[in-house]
Amino acid sequence: MFDVIREFTYAGGKTGKYCSLPELEKLGIGPVSKLPVSIRIVLESVLRNCDGMRVADSDVKTLANWAATGERTAEIPFVVARVVLQDFTGVPLLVDLAAMRDAAAKLGKNPKIIEPLVPVDLVVDHSVQVDVSESADALQKNMEIEFARNEQRYQFLKWGMQAFETFSVVPPGIGIVHQVNLEYLAKGVLVDGEGVFYPDTLVGTDSHTTMINGLGIVGWGVGGIEAEAGMLGQPVYFLTPDVVGVTLTGSLNPGVTATDLVLTLTELLRAAKVVGKFVEFHGEGAASLSLTDRATIANMAPEYGATMGFFPVDEESCRYLTNTGRTEEQVDAFRQYFKAQGLFGMPAAGALEYSQLLTLDLSTVVPSVAGPKRPQDRIALTDVKEKFGELVAENTKYTILPMAGSPASDRKLEMESLSNGDVVIAAITSCTNTSNPSVMLAAGLVAKKAVEKGLTVRETVKTSLGPGSRVVTDYLNKTGLQSYLDTLGFQTVGYGCTTCIGNSGPLDAAIEKTIVENNLTVAAVLSGNRNFEARVHQNVKANFLMSPPLVVAYALAGSVSIDLTTAPIGTGSDGNSVYLKDIWPTPAEVAALIGSAEDPAVFQTLYSGFAEQNPLWQEISSSTGDLYAWDENSTYIQHPPYFENFGPDAGVAADVLGARPLAILGDSVTTDHISPAGAIKASSPAGRYLVEHGVEAADFNSYGSRRGNDRVMVRGTFANVRIKNQMVPGVEGGITKINGAGEPVAIYDAAMEYKAAGVPLVILAGQEYGTGSSRDWAAKGTALQGVKAVIAQSFERIHRSNLVGMGVLPCQFPEGVSAATLGLDGTETFDLTGVAGGITPRMGLTLTITKADGTKIEQPVTLRIDTPIEVEYYLHGGILPYVLRQLVARA
After folding, report:
1. Contact 727, 826 (CB under 8 A)
2. Neighbours of 846 (CB within 10 A)
3. In terms of C-beta density within 10 A (0-12 exposed, 13-18 middle, 19 or more buried), how is residue 148 classed?
4. Alpha carbon distance 684, 678 (integer Å)
5. With contact defined as beta carbons under 8 Å apart, do 706 and 713 qualify?
6. For the Aconitase A/isopropylmalate dehydratase small subunit swivel domain, which residue ranges apply (predicted)?
7. Is residue 275 a contact partner of residue 370, using CB atoms and an 8 Å limit?
8. Which CATH number do you get for residue 402?
């Protein structure tokens, strides 16, 4: 233990205690003051929680002596202050906790040994869909549909609220989890029962938890299974990271938005390979950015691959807390605490040590979009027309194989109403931008100028506005801009993650039929952070991320196959052509309205009395008690199979022998490709299951809403309509061939046939396997389908961790080796050996490949179990059995 408790003063003479980092440096423990700010905040947690058991003295010394270019072998136990969930990931997490209570009870233990040890906030924001749009009552109707669809889930959440003392729910209709976290849940600094202050830190079950980094708060996205361990007293373990410093200089030019900046940074940082690293912004350019601009950049850390995109605390951070309704005492405690720790103020260029240093001059940023299927693929606005032409040519390479029972047609429709490049979805959506008043007000001003010039949006464009919180509605109404957005069809459809997560709702049936039967490459334009294949809508192939004002502009233009910078957007009521420059707002026009978004009283009013503000939530009834009363007939909530035959002892590692490939996949396979997401097709295995259980197709809801039912989710794993299994070349969709031969079948059906025969499975993949949202079902579904190992060229951070957390072996090919270089086609069998002798982090294993003709290849691979604690998780069959055995043993 270290003698570092000191006092600081705040709020005109009050005193508080804190674990002093400057005092730690005075003890000669390490060069603390030169460490990146983000590392020092993690160090404070390690120091404060040093108890000789969960956190050892050596952990403090290791992190205090972090070396910018050192070897990354040390594992840091990070105890977070709180956990934030959204409902898609939070419901299965609660299902797992309920199942753990059942398992504890069966072992004769008090089920309440399963109880979160840190505050847990769940924000219901992922369940609203854009069923109704372009009408004044869209918000109310969508919410009514949402509650009708999700009653079973909401009853379950209400049970959780009464069953667990530290679990609270922000009900539907309040806002997006990340904006609610930024505007309300975040405290900046917290205090324990002994009067010791400490920084607000967290993990969240959404990869965009990083948005909070814009406020100087350390936090990132983890899988639900990892979050559960953190809630139940386990530190979040991670290797000491590299920290990439990004020096921002200059300032943005007029007409360039924060969205343009974040798309530029996403391209820059993805190219710099910052995957799994901390990114820390600093310099005069960073200091000049508003807090909401910083939050926009921090939000997209998963898109550039970083664990965090961090901005240190300064006076702008304090100003934001004040403007969003925090008390003067709270804000001054935040300010004075960080000053006492030597952590206040935006560091200048060269002040701190970083593993790698990048620089961006903000004046070089130009208006941009990203797409058509990856957020890092930035396109200058001037080049969109040309890039779209290349996409249309690319899409001729693949055909879509219809699933059994899907509608077919024997003729082509005449393409009179739609053509390639036409915009069919235009959505101002997602926390990335709807939390930022500068771009939201700009969108309103574009709408105002367009309406005044007589421009309209054609009927084939589905328009919607999903604000990040009700505060946005307040300032759009105050400024009178909402009425112009309404005129163009951008009525508010709900407060939640709508189009950005695939909850775009249906297109007009005639439009959808025209798209499918003519194999059109139509477009969605959205202000979100994700545009992976089939995410927005299964039949919309081109999806472009952009700022809210550009979403309005493209909705007016109606096509992405024109150059908005030179071609007219439309014809005004006076008969003259209208160009983008004619309706684009000036910085002065936006600045004149920004004060309307900074009223503390509005935040205080809107973030109080949630239940009373939502009668539909009040009407939801639920069961009570410490154990959940499972309903065997529920198609939403089912007891999961993870603790079947659960015993007190861990298992032993075994080689994987005689495995068959379930799929051979290429590069950039995302968790959207792997995990069940979006709409459920009636002809799919999951759709057939629901029909068999009496659910009409109209009531299927989305995969995300059914994450509490493993029977649905395992059937939807690897079922994405755009996934490309190289075992079935030239075809898209979740299909495979058993033993690499015969007719294509659904991946789920093949997996169950293999499982019945006792055959283990492997997945082979390329670079960046598991990119995207931190969906625990991407790992859970993989495990439940019988996959024992995933062998890829590289992994995205969260998905690799989740695979280990579900007892699946992630293995990595050496540089330059892939399924393609090995000539694999799916007819092979695989033996993964070296496991049975006992495993250690990143050890070498041998993958023996036996081809159909009997020839063998012995291919070395690296086991991507990266840390000692992950070895334990794997031996226990996953992180949840490990934690449960720990709790049962202590009880």
Report:
1. yes
2. 14
3. exposed
4. 13
5. yes
6. 688-815
7. no
8. 3.30.499.10
Tokens 């406020």 correspond to 215
Vertex 716 angle, CA 713 and 718, to 5°: 125
Residue 774 binned pLDDT confidence (cut-offs 50, 70, 90): low
Among 572, 598, 624, the domain boundary falls at 598
User: Phi and psi (nearest 5°) for 812?
Assistant: -120, 130
**What is the β-pairing status of strands 14-19 and 5-10?**
antiparallel
Task: Give the pLDDT confidence score for residue 30 in this predicted structure.
Answer: 95
pTM: 0.86
Length of the chain (residues): 891
The pLDDT tens digits of the residues spanning 728-764 come to 999 999 999 999 999 999 999 999 999 999 999 999 9
671 and 567, same domain (yes or no): no
| Shared domain check, 850 and 721 | yes
For helices 879-890 and 868-875, what crossing angle results, to 10°? 90
Tokens of 4: 């570092």
List residues bridging with 92 in a β-sheet. Answer: none
The rounded radius of gyration (Å) of the Cα atoms in the chain is 26
Q: CA 270 → CA 219, 265, 300, 359, distances in Å?
A: 20, 8, 11, 14
Residue among 68, 61, 71 nearest 25 (CA): 61
Q: How many CB atoms lie within 10 A of CB 389?
A: 13
User: Where does residue 454 rank: exposed (0-12), middle (13-18), buried (19+ CB within 10 A)?
Assistant: middle
Q: Please compute the mean of the pLDDT values over residues 571-590 and round it to a whole number.
A: 97
Q: Does residue 745 contact residue 738 with C-beta atoms inside 8 Å?
A: yes
* Residues 404 and 488 placed together within one structural domain of the fold: yes
Can you state the angle between helices 797-805 and 224-231, rounded to 10 degrees?
70
Asked if residue 664 and residue 590 are part of one domain, the reply reads no
**What is the average per-residue pLDDT within 77-97?**
93
- Do 668 and 555 fall within a single domain? no
**Cα 300–chain centre separation:** 9
Instruction: Let me know if residue 747 belongs to a domain.
Output: yes
With respect to residue 843, please indicate whether it lies within any of the assigned structural domains: yes
394 and 538 co-located in one domain: yes
Rounded Cα gap, residues 457 and 447, in angstroms: 11
* 877 C-beta neighbours (distance < 10 Å), count: 18
- Which residue's structure tokens are 């360039």? 256
Average pLDDT score over the chain: 93
Domain CATH code at residue 803: 3.20.19.10
Q: How many domains does the chain have?
A: 3
Whether residue 592 is found in the same domain as residue 666: no
Q: Are 559 and 470 part of one and the same domain?
A: yes
What's the CA gap between 249 and 521, in Å, rounded? 39
Range of the structural domain that residue 797 is part of: 656-675+717-875
Say if 660 falls within a structural domain: yes
Of 598, 627, 643, which one is at a domain's C-terminal end? 598
